[in-house]
Amino acid sequence: MKGKVLVVGLGNPGPRYAFTRHNAGFLCVEEVARNLGIAFHPHRLKEALVAEGTFAGRPFLLVKPLSYMNLSGSVVAHFARAWDAAGEDLWVIHDDMDLFPGTIRLKRGGGSGGHRGIASVLAALGEDFARLRIGIGRPPEGVAVVDWVLSSPEGEEARIFREGIVRGAQALLAVYEIGWEEAMNRFHRRS
Fold it and tell me: Given 22, 43, 78, 94, which residue is catalytic?
């Protein structure tokens, strides 16, 4: 890990989706920006919000694509080429129903797991990127997946979801302070 770091949070733009489970990627990249003391602004050429800063002596570019979740791939590919980022220095942050709420996982490569935003990124880029997966859990019986991911957690679940967002941002930055293995050991345990 030597060059620039590109971190893309997946989500859907607009206030209707702001605090939904599917916007875990947006929320986490916003938390990374808070940790770095930087703010998002519109990108002049691409439909995205961006924030630039440094961490551990490395330039970071944070991106929130303003295309909808399922069309994120072309935006991620644009910034990956422009920023010359790949492999462990290109991150995509997204929600994951296969993880319990509050759980996070750092991952290299792999398939989409049914996540349409990740499927779009894979179609545009291939598997050469790292991921931060944020658990949102499965919907209760009788609740459709689309209704689950596009709704906001409430009560205790909202607190646990927020904790996962904060821990996710800490874990991503920890990779550049203490390395992959130590970050995984520290953050893959659920608090």
Answer: 22
